Amino acid sequence: MKKKKAAANKSPVKIPVKSEPRRKVTRKSPDSSKSRQTGFKPDQTESVIEEFRRRWPELNESRLEAHRQLRLVHDQLINKPGVTGLHVGLKKKGESADAPSNYLRPLVYSIRIHVQQKFSDRLDPRIAELLPAQIGDIPTDVIQRTYSANPASSNAVPGSIPGASPNSPDEFFNPVIGGIAIAPKNLGATHWGTLGKLFYYGNQMAYLTNQHVVGPPGSQVIQPPSGVTPDGSSEIIGTVAKIVDPADSLTRARIDAAVILASGIRKRRSAINGLSAAIFTVGQLTEGDKFKTAFKIGAKTGKTEGVVQTVSATVVFNDRTMVNQIIVEPVPGSDADLCSGGDSGSLLCVERTSGTRKVCEIVGLVHAEGDGDGSGRHRSIIACHIKDVMNYFGLRLDA
Questions:
Q1: More exposed terminus of the chain, fewer Cβ within 10 Å: N or C?
Q2: What architecture (CATH level 2) is domain 279-396?
Q3: What's the count of helices (H) and strands (E) in the chain, helices before strands?
Q4: Which CATH superfamily groups domain 176-272?
Q5: Among 32-41, 46-55, 82-91, 234-243, where is mean pLDDT lowest?
């Protein structure tokens, strides 16, 4: 992975945060100490989801008001030193790797402010100005998060294919499918990411990934990134045809994507590595999809799944601010990393059923990762909405 560059105006600043009075909690279950070890109780999570669905009309009104209030102060907040993101979400009583589902009950929407690092205020008079306890009638909720968007950098060993280990940049695929490692020819194994999937671009077959994975238009793209094929045939699978116009700041703030026109003699298949006999559709996540399980299949970490936290976040990373982003964080109780360098370009999906068949609904294009819980590990997925990507490039699933 490339080393993350800190923006000049985003230096790591500890943000003093106004602490709330501690609430007395009565533990009813005799085995509550056990639940603290895993960070959640299955029945607690189900209870939160049940309340969310039952009170959705009322909660949705609160959510809309929170978005109205956030729009009024968005630019002011996102430009504060140390702030890494913003989104409207349910307020939590406390948050750590041990307690991912500690929602304040009854559920209440808040403006969640992401910071690089936080600590208790200790009566610092600057607190109210830096991070207000509420905005209008909406409470705030400060969480520790950092984000990055980098391709993988690895010591791929030429000549190790076939027989490379799964999710290796050396693994050769014929036919070319989604979820596998690709790289720009001029960088190869020192800079690689994931091919999302085969789409149609006009009347031509094309692959979708991130612009930061493959570079500018005209760049040749290879698979595997090691550049070594088992039969000595060409490693080139296509050429970058289009990226988001650098002058189009509004679109660049929403998507990171590139279209690769397919070429070469290798076969191509509209499939994703590890998904057998799936039917693909395209969908749009909404705020009502909070708690929905979503997954991605990346070239680095394979298939991982988590829970949708928001579909309209602002996140700051690599000297860039992006809006209207999807954030997926671990399933409560899970200790798995969801995303890492090399997974950029993978597709975010949700699973549905159509009769007796599984349907893979594509909802996002993964382009960044986050620590997800302040632990420094790669615990969250950041994705742009797939419909924003397809509409901009004029992509279709079918010919």
A1: C
A2: Beta Barrel (2.40)
A3: 7, 24
A4: Trypsin-like serine proteases (2.40.10.10)
A5: 32-41
